[in-house]
Design brief:
Blueprint (H helix, E strand, L loop, with lengths): L1 E5 L6 H13 L5 E9 L15 E6 L5 H14 L4 E5 L4 H6 L8 E6 L4 H10 L5 E4 L2 H10 L7 E3 L24 E5 L4 H4 L4 H6 L6 E5 L5 H7 L7 E5 L6 H6 L3 E4 L8 H8 L3 E5 L5 H4 L7 E3 L4 H13 L1 H18 L2 H17 L29 H13 L1
Parallel strand pairs: 1-2, 1-4, 2-3, 4-5, 5-6, 6-7, 8-9, 8-11, 9-10, 11-12, 12-13
Protein name: Glycosyltransferase family 4 protein
Keywords: Plasmid
Length: 399
């Protein structure tokens, strides 16, 4: 079986999921290949050229409308002799929409990576055209089944997972008392979802010996540096980090700080726990609670509670034995429940089941009638001021 996974190689969680899933599905006789598009002449991002061996890059005229890209994507899918496709909802709007137009004999699997109203609206639009839906967290499945009427028998939870072996060679030396704790933020530098603009307030409340490394890139990096400059004491901006360098980076830090407003199930969190980097994360119902057992293998705080974060870190700074216990328990949690082997086996079972007995889905739409449905267009929430949206997101999680 050969499956196209809609994603463009990049330094980020969605592509890390692809890489792990590709390796995990191979023993099941399933070949997973990435499929993505870029404007003509752009090519893959520097440093990712070797990923071309695992997928197909579709070049599209940058000035043409969605239909041109959609037709070229369809042509690449048919030319690749794929048996099915995996669409990551809202990773790209054209690729999300195209599942409504593909030939009827192609298997379609939808993966929902986030819990936002916009993500759910997009998923609802294409649900009649997919054979099965995978949610990366329990919260996501509960929302889709209970509130958006997704068929329960065709909606599953498969958590993102990591390749344990990639982290086995990383040594974690205990931090001596007297030396400050090393905190790490790793991910997209974006305030709306990741809450990065809370980081300066958190750091100012910590002991002077604590340091904070910020690894990644994103649209709010400039804003973050404006309030917490690169030359500020105790702050290190590490920039984007290649996947193969992540285990060593995590091993050099004591605490993984995740002040997010909303998530699906972030790969960086699973990776941090695998490396024994103790997670201190926002309490997001059905998401972070799904992997972190508060007080046992990590610590949770209410969304936006910067005072609470500082209190947690200060307590761990004074109790290194507890820090070590949480570190060991975090790694055991991943080894027991979040392995690539388990993730791949679950995906393989769904793909095999759908191939053997495909459930009825809506007939494909004609490509000549291509249009972007309402659920894939910007809604009214898009135009709300950022502070208002952020306030509403915080309230949503606290209620």
């Amino acid at each position: 079986m050969k499956i196209a996974y809609f994603v463009l190689p990049h330094l980020g969680g969605t592509y890390t999921v692809f890489r792990n899933l590709r390796a995990g599905l191979a023993p099941h006789g399933i070949e997973l290949c990435w499929l993505g598009f870029v404007p003509v002449g752009q090519g893959l991002a520097p440093g990712l050229e070797r990923e071309a061996a695992f997928g197909t890059l579709v070049e599209v005229p940058s000035q043409d409308d969605d239909r041109v890209a959609a037709r070229l994507m369809e042509k690449a899918i048919l030319a690749g002799a794929f048996d099915g496709v995996v669409v990551n909802v809202l990773s790209d709007r054209i690729q999300t929409n195209i599942v409504r137009y593909l030939p009827a004999d192609l298997l379609r699997l939808m993966v929902v990576h986030n819990i936002t109203p916009g993500t759910y609206a997009a998923a609802e639009v294409i649900q009649p055209h997919v054979h099965a839906t995978v949610c990366v967290s329990q919260r996501c499945r509960d929302d889709l089944v209970k509130r958006h009427h997704f068929p329960a028998m065709r909606t599953s939870v498969i958590a993102n997972a990591v390749a344990i072996d990639a982290f086995s060679a990383t040594d974690r030396s205990p931090r001596p008392i007297g030396q400050g704790l090393r905190l790490l933020f790793l991910g997209r530098i974006e305030d709306a979802s990741k809450g990065v603009l809370w980081l300066p307030d958190i750091l100012t409340r910590l002991p002077a010996s604590s340091t904070l490394t910020i690894a990644g890139e994103g649209p709010d990096l400039r804003r973050l540096k404006a309030v917490m400059p690169e030359d500020a004491p105790r702050v290190i901006y590490a920039g984007p980090v290649a996947a193969q360098a992540v285990p060593a980076l995590l091993a050099r830090h004591d605490i993984f700080l995740m002040p997010s407003r909303y998530e699906g199930l972030p790969m960086a969190l699973v990776e941090a726990m695998t490396a024994g980097c103790v997670p201190v994360a926002s309490r997001i119902r059905g998401v972070t609670e799904m992997i972190i057992e508060h007080g046992r293998d990590g610590l949770l705080f209410p969304v936006g509670d910067t005072v609470g974060v500082a209190e947690i870190v200060r307590a761990l700074d004074k109790d290194r034995a507890r820090l070590g216990s949480l570190s060991a328990a975090a790694r055991r949690k991943v080894e027991g429940a979040f392995t690539v082997e388990r993730m791949a086996a679950d995906y393989a079972a769904i793909l095999r089941g759908v191939a053997a007995d495909p459930p009825p889905i809506a007939a494909p739409l004609p490509m000549d009638a291509w249009s972007m449905p309402r659920g894939l267009r910007a809604g009214l929430r898009t135009f709300l001021p950022r502070p208002v949206k952020n306030w509403l997101r915080g309230i949503r999680e606290r209620l």
